Amino acid sequence: MSRQVETFARKLGLQFKDPALLRQALTHRSADHKHNERLEFLGDSVLGFVVAERLYEKFPEADEGVLSRLRATLVNQTSLAGVARNLNLGDHLILGSGELKSGGFRRDSILSDALEAVMGALLKDQGYEICRDWILNLFGEAIEGLSPDDRRKDPKTRLQEIMQGRGLELPIYILLSMSGLPHDQQFRVECRVPLMPESSEGEGPSRKRAEQQAAERMLQKLAEQDQGLL
Question: What is the sign of the dihedral through the CA atoms of 205, 206, 211 and 212?
Answer without folding.
Answer: negative
